[in-house]
Design goal:
The protein is built from 15 helices and 22 strands. By secondary structure, the protein is α/β, with parallel strands linked by helices. It has a seven-stranded mixed sheet, with helices on both faces. A five-stranded mixed sheet has the order 17-19-18-21-22, sandwiched between helices. Strands 1-8-6-3 form a four-stranded antiparallel sheet, covered by helices on one side. It binds thiamine diphosphate. Thiamine diphosphate (TPP) binds near residues 172, 201, 225 and 232. The pyruvate dehydrogenase complex catalyzes the overall conversion of pyruvate to acetyl-CoA and CO2.
Length: about 475
């Protein structure tokens, strides 16, 4: 199979760039780490490195090409002795079609293109697994609409803003640019600049303004461009918002939602690829939600906006473009603190949240082929954690693996293992295992990034291990 080289995203906001110069030609042998080309953006000129070794079979975008969209296939690499024609004649054409379709559907922001680049360990898929169960609380016969997680989040905010004029959104690029990841699309147009507010690049400032507004009776939604930048604002989240109810003896509440993408994205390096779920989930006074599907994103964001207490709502960039069925109901709100069994099984429980749920479901499908029926639980809310759902499933399967796209130390997985030991010891037929990212800052190089992130195969292996297979 030829390897497609795609126009890289050299920053989280890069949408296109100039392919300034090719440093290799067709027929050249390349090794991982070789510099293949120079890419220019309005900000910088960067070198484009080979990740795989092989022979440059075809250069599809000539040097000097301007405005090449992130994700465009620019060249093909094959292995020695392989030719593009014999191995995959349609590869480039299919990619081009796929991109054209996305453009038509009006959703190809830079980040989405970079999603498609994820080579990968955490591999985004366009469609959610069919096994996702519909919420039991949805009335029978409810019509479903298929929308992306991005659209579901936008719909949740728009519906709550229509229903309650205290709700407003603020953050970097949320208004005119409609969100760095296009999650606030259409909100400025519908609600105007008083309720959809572009802020300066001052996370500490606007998280504080939001927290004060919440204490004063408004219902802010503060978008962080990514949760990596919320590090600047963490004092307001942990020390102001989370403590208000407690330090005022219940006389003041702080109904605010801090939301934005969290976790590893694709090729944006260590400072932009971290999962903060365990950090926030350790703080009493905060509610922490991290959905996987579009239906959960919608139902839980609506619940978060209605909450009287501060909510940290952790989304995932790689899920924004994925489509799922969402109930077509006037007011689809889900309960905070309730996990969901997304696949039933009897042999082993896989517990996960956010993007890890997709990995767990893929692993469950592979395990089924090997005679192991895995139950998959999507935690959805990380604080308060649905201990009952975890323990009930453990009592049924007696074996558990936690799948978490995060570091292993002091993780949500660690907490679940403690719960299993303290409260589910008699149910256990094997030690609970955790499948997490490697305990390192996420590398930038694609081959190392892939090695550092959780993979379906690791989950399959861990599940077999706890089943003594
Ligand atoms: C604390 C923090 N918040 C947000 C970002 C995301 N970010 C990266 S570049 C950028 C825009 C920078 O604009 P400007 O300061 O005008 O510099 P320019 O790159 O346009 O020269 C933003 C918001 C970041 N890197 N760090």
């Amino acid at each position: 199979m030829p390897v497609e080289l795609k126009m890289p995203a050299l920053s989280p906001t890069m949408e296109e760039g100039m392919l300034a110069k090719w440093l290799v030609k067709e027929g050249d042998q390349v090794a991982s780490g070789d510099i293949l080309a120079e890419i220019e953006t309005d900000k910088a000129t960067m070198e484009f490195e080979a990740v795989d070794e092989g022979v440059i079979a075809k250069i599809l975008v000539p040097e000097g090409s301007d405005a090449v969209k992130v994700g465009t296939v620019i060249a093909l690499i094959v292995q020695q002795g392989e030719s593009v024609e014999t191995s995959a004649p349609n590869a480039p054409a299919e990619t081009a079609e796929g991109e054209a379709e996305e453009e038509e559907a009006g959703e190809a922001p830079a980040e989405e293109a970079s999603e498609k680049q994820a080579t990968t360990a955490v591999s985004p898929k366009d469609e959610a697994p069919a096994s996702l169960r519909v919420e039991p609380e949805v009335p029978e016969g409810t019509e479903m609409i298929r929308i992306t997680v991005r659209e579901a989040l936008r719909d949740a905010m728009a519906e709550e803003m229509r229903a309650d004029d205290r709700v407003f959104v603020m953050g970097e690029e949320v208004a005119e640019y409609q969100g760095a990841y296009k999650v606030t699309q259409g909100l400025l147009e519908e609600f105007g600049a008083e309720r959809v507010i572009d802020t300066p690049i001052t996370e500490y400032g606007f998280a504080g303004v939001g927290t004060g507004a919440a204490m004063g009776g408004l219902k802010p939604i503060v978008e962080f461009m990514t949760f990596n930048f919320a590090m600047q604002a963490i004092d307001h989240i942990v020390n102001s918002a989370a403590k208000t109810n407690y330090m005022s003896g219940g006389q003041m509440r702080c109904p605010i939602v801090f939301r934005g993408p969290n976790g590893a994205a694709s090729r944006v390096a260590a400072q932009h690829s971290q999962n903060y779920a365990p950090w926030y989930a350790s703080v009493p006074g905060l509610i922490v939600i991290s959905p996987y599907s579009a239906a959960d994103a919608k139902g839980l964001l609506k619940a978060a906006i209605r909450s009287e207490d501060p909510v940290v709502f952790l989304e995932n960039e790689l899920l924004y473009g994925q489509s799922f069925d969402v109930p077509k109901l006037d007011d689809y709100v889900l309960p905070i603190g309730k996990a969901r069994v997304v696949r039933e099984g009897v042999d082993v429980t896989l517990v996960s949240y956010s993007i890890g749920v997709g990995i767990a479901l893929d692993a469950a499908a592979q395990l089924a082929g090997q005679g192991i029926e895995a139950e998959v639980i999507d935690l959805r809310t990380l604080r308060p954690l649905d201990r009952q759902a975890i323990l009930e499933s453990l009592a049924k399967t007696n074996r558990m693996v936690v799948v978490e796209e995060a570091w292993p130390v002091c993780s949500i997985a660690s907490e679940i293992i403690a719960i299993a030991m303290e409260e589910g010891f008699d149910s256990l037929d094997a030690p609970v295992l955790r499948v997490t990212n490697k305990d390192v800052p996420l590398p930038y190089a694609a081959n190392l990034e892939k090695l550092a992130l959780i993979k379906v195969e690791d989950v399959v292996e861990a599940a077999k291990k706890v089943c003594y297979r």
